[in-house]
Design brief:
single chain; six-stranded parallel beta sheet; 25 helices; about 15% strand; binds adenosine-5'-diphosphate; binds zinc ion
Length: about 625
C-alpha cells in the first residue's frame, strides 16, 4: 500500500475529483474511525467513493456485498481503470477466472473484493474470512435486507451471520438510495449494526427534471419525447413484458434504435441487449423493472415511464437511473388511469402464492395511492417526491413540469355539474359505471353497451358532446380527489356520488387549475446546492445549462470516448463520465496540466487518455 496517502490525495489522485460531495467525507471519517455506518444517499450521490476510499486506506481486504453481477463487474472495471486493486467473486466466473482472482488476492493485489450475497454461505468464503484481514464489510443496496423495501432478497438475511462468524468483527457500512424510516430501522436490525453513524444526505437530485404527462395518445407522446432527445441515451420503462415488446417494435418501425429487456427473454438476448445499451451501441432501452438495479451506466440522460409504477420508491429509484454522473437529465412519467388499475390488479392477485398477504396488499395499495397523487399533482413534483420521503422542500423548485407550466385557475362549475348529474341519473336507474363509460355517455356515444342499456335516453346523454374526452377525464379525476365523486371497487372501479349535494343545488362553485399549453423557460439548476441536511461543500460542482456547451464538440468527444472504450472492451462511461466530457467542453484543456483540472481525471486516466482528448480539443478550438 502506498504510504502518505490520505482521503484527499486519493480523491484527487485516483478519482480525479477536487471536492467531496455532501455526506461523503463524514461517512469516510466514520468508517476510518471504526464506527459502523448507515448511509442513505440518492442514486448518483457518490456512495461508492464513501467506502472505496477507506478501503484503499485500510490494511487488508474490504469485502463489498453487492446484489448484482453486472454492477460488480462495472465497479471493478472502474476501479481498475483508476489504478486500484479490485476483484469480484461470483457465479459468472469460470474456474480459471476464479483461480486467477484468488491468486490476485493471495498476491496482495486486491483491496476491494466484491462478492454476491449468495456466496456468503460457501465454505470458500468462510475460510477466506479466517485467512485474511478484513477491516471493513460493505453492504451495498442495503434495503434488500428488508421485506418492506422493494427489492427484498433472502440471501441478504445471511449477512449478519457471516459477519458474526468472523474472528474479528469488521466495521460494517451499509448503503442505500431508498429507505423510509421503516426500512432504515430494518437495515440496522437485520444487519446488526452496532451504534451506527447514520447519515441521510436528503433525497433531492437537483440535476433531474421531473415531468408528468397525461397524454391522450401515449405512443405519440413517447415519440415526441424521443424526438426531442435524439442524440442521448435513455430508458423507457413499461409495466409488462407485452408492452415492452410492442413498444420496442413500434420504436424500431419508426427508425429509433431501441433494444428491449425483460425477464421473459432468454439469457443471451438479454445480455446482448443490455450490452448494446451499456456500450452505447443502441441508445434507447425499453424494459420492465427487471432492468436496472445492476446497471451502473452513468450517462443515461432520460428515463421515461410509459406506465406508472406501483409506488413512489420504485419510481424514484427507476427515474433516478438518469443523470447519475450529475449531468442534466429528464424523468418523464406518461400517466393514464389504466396504469392504476393494472397495478391494483397486480397487488391484489399473486401468481406465486395461493393466498395474498392481506396486510401487505393493503400497505401496497396505500403506496399506489401516493404514486397516483404524484401523477395527478398540481403542485411542484419535486416537493411531492421529497415530501414522500419525509423531507421538506421549497413550494416551487423551478425545474419540474408543474413549476414550468402556466396554470389558469378555471371555473369548472358547469362541467362539474354535468358530470356529477350524469352519475346521479345513473344512480336513479340503479346503475354505476367506470370513467370510460361515463365519458362516453356524456359525449353522446352510441356504442353497443350504451344502446343495450338504453342510456341514450338519459337526460345527460350527449350534454358534453363538444368537450374533449381527455378534459372530461381530468375533471372527473379532480372531482374524485375533491370528494364530489367517489371511486369504488378495485378491479372494475365504478364512479359513485360523493359530497355533491351543494353543487347539484347550485350552492357551490368548483375551481380547478388547468394547464395552459406553453412551457415557461427552465432555469438551469446547480446540483447539490440544496442537497439537504448536510453541509454544503466549499466549492460545489456547478452545472452548465446545456445551451452553454459546444454540443458539436461534445458529440466528437463522445465518439472518441466510445472508440477508446471499445478498444479496451469497457463501457464508454468507464473511460469518462458525461460530466467529465461536459467539463472538457467548458474548460477546453489543451495541455496535460490543464487536463488534470477536469473533473474525473485522476493520475492513471491522465496518462492513459490525456493526449488523444487534448488533440481532439486542439483541433476544435
Ligand atoms: P451512487 O452509487 O451513489 O449511485 P456513484 O458512486 O456511482 O453513485 O457515483 C455517481 C457518479 O458521481 C460517478 O460518476 C462518480 O464518479 C461521481 N462522483 C462521486 N463522487 C464525486 C465527487 N466528490 N466529485 C465529483 N464526482 C463524483
Ligand atoms: Zn417543481
Amino acid at each position: 500500500m502506498t504510504k502518505n496517502m490520505n482521503k484527499h490525495s486519493i480523491l484527487r489522485d485516483k478519482f480525479g475529483y477536487s471536492y467531496f460531495r455532501p455526506g461523503q467525507e463524514e461517512t469516510i471519517d466514520s468508517i476510518l474511525a471504526g464506527t459502523d455506518v448507515l448511509a442513505v444517499m440518492p442514486t448518483g450521490a457518490g456512495k461508492s467513493l464513501c467506502y472505496q476510499i477507506p478501503a484503499l486506506l485500510l490494511d487488508g481486504i474490504t469485502i463489498v456485498i453487492s446484489p448484482l453481477i453486472s454492477l460488480m463487474k462495472d465497479q471493478v472495471s472502474a476501479l481498475r481503470e483508476a489504478g486500484c486493486g479490485a476483484a469480484f467473486l461470483n457465479s459468472s466466473l469460470s474456474s480459471g477466472e476464479y483461480a486467477c482472482a484468488m491468486r490476485d488476492i493471495a498476491g496482495g493485489n486486491v483491496q476491494l473484493l466484491y462478492i454476491a450475497p449468495e456466496r456468503l454461505q460457501k465454505t470458500d468464503m468462510l475460510n477466506f474470512a479466517d485467512n485474511y484481514n478484513i477491516p471493513l464489510v460493505v453492504v451495498d443496496e442495503a434495503h434488500c435486507v428488508s421485506q418492506w423495501g422493494h427489492d427484498f432478497r433472502t440471501s441478504y438475511l445471511q449477512i449478519a451471520d457471516f459477519i458474526n462468524g468472523m474472528d474479528t468483527r469488521p466495521v460494517v457500512a451499509a448503503f442505500t438510495a431508498t429507505a423510509t424510516v421503516k426500512v432504515r430501522d430494518d437495515i440496522k436490525k437485520m444487519l446488526a449494526l452496532r451504534g451506527p453513524f447514520v447519515i441521510n444526505t436528503g433525497y433531492d437530485r437537483p440535476n433531474l427534471y421531473f415531468e408528468v404527462q397525461k397524454p391522450k395518445d401515449k405512443k405519440a407522446a413517447l415519440l415526441e419525447c424521443l424526438e426531442k432527445r435524439k442524440n442521448s441515451s435513455g430508458i423507457i420503462y413499461c409495466a409488462t413484458r407485452k408492452t415492452v415488446d410492442e413498444t420496442c417494435r413500434m420504436l424500431i418501425s419508426c427508425g429509433i434504435d431501441a433494444a428491449r429487456y425483460h425477464a421473459g427473454l432468454d439469457d443471451s438476448e438479454r445480455r446482448k441487449n443490455q450490452d448494446d445499451f451499456i456500450y452505447d451501441r443502441r441508445p434507447v432501452m425499453v424494459a420492465t423493472n427487471a432492468f436496472g438495479m445492476g446497471i451502473n451506466k452513468s450517462n443515461v440522460s432520460f428515463v421515461i415511464h410509459y406506465n406508472m409504477p406501483k409506488n413512489i420508491e420504485s419510481y424514484y429509484q427507476e427515474a433516478g437511473r438518469a443523470g447519475r454522473d450529475g449531468a442534466p437529465a429528464d424523468c418523464i412519467l406518461l400517466y393514464s388511469g389504466q396504469d392504476v388499475r393494472i397495478n391494483q390488479y397486480l397487488i391484489t392477485h399473486n401468481d406465486e402464492e395461493e393466498t395474498v398477504n392481506e396486510k401487505l396488499a393493503a400497505h401496497n395499495l396505500e403506496l399506489l395511492k401516493q404514486m397516483t397523487f404524484y401523477a395527478m399533482a398540481d403542485s411542484c413534483l419535486r416537493r411531492r417526491l421529497l415530501a414522500y420521503f419525509g423531507e421538506s422542500a421549497p413550494a416551487v423548485c423551478g425545474h419540474c413540469s408543474i413549476c414550468l407550466t402556466e396554470f389558469n385557475e378555471t371555473d369548472i362549475t358547469i362541467e362539474a355539474k354535468k358530470i356529477v348529474s350524469c352519475v346521479y341519473r345513473l344512480k336513479q336507474r340503479s346503475r354505476s359505471f367506470g370513467k370510460t363509460m361515463i365519458t362516453d355517455i356524456l359525449r353522446g356515444s352510441k356504442n353497443e353497451k350504451i344502446l343495450r342499456f338504453g342510456l341514450d335516453t338519459l337526460s345527460t346523454w350527449g350534454i358534453m358532446s363538444e368537450t374533449d374526452a381527455h378534459r372530461i377525464r381530468i375533471i372527473m379525476d379532480y372531482l374524485i380527489d375533491e370528494g364530489l365523486l367517489m371511486q369504488e371497487g378495485s378491479e372494475y372501479p365504478v364512479i359513485t356520488l360523493g359530497e355533491a349535494g351543494a353543487l347539484l343545488r347550485d350552492e357551490q362553485r368548483v375551481f380547478m387549475k388547468l394547464p395552459q399549453e406553453q412551457r415557461k423557460q427552465s432555469r438551469a439548476k446547480e446540483p447539490f446546492l440544496n442537497a439537504g441536511r448536510v453541509s454544503i461543500p466549499s466549492a460545489p460542482e456547478i452545472q452548465d445549462a446545456p445551451e452553454d456547451l459546444d454540443e458539436a464538440l461534445l458529440d466528437k468527444l463522445k465518439k472518441l470516448r466510445k472508440e477508446l472504450a471499445a478498444s479496451e472492451s469497457v463501457p464508454a462511461y468507464i473511460v469518462f463520465s458525461d460530466a467529465s466530457l461536459r467539463d472538457m467542453c467548458k474548460k477546453m484543456p489543451v495541455t496535460l496540466d490543464q487536463f488534470t483540472d477536469i473533473s474525473g481525471v485522476g493520475r492513471i486516466k491522465l496518462e492513459k487518455y490525456g493526449k488523444p482528448f487534448i488533440a481532439l480539443i486542439r483541433e476544435n478550438i
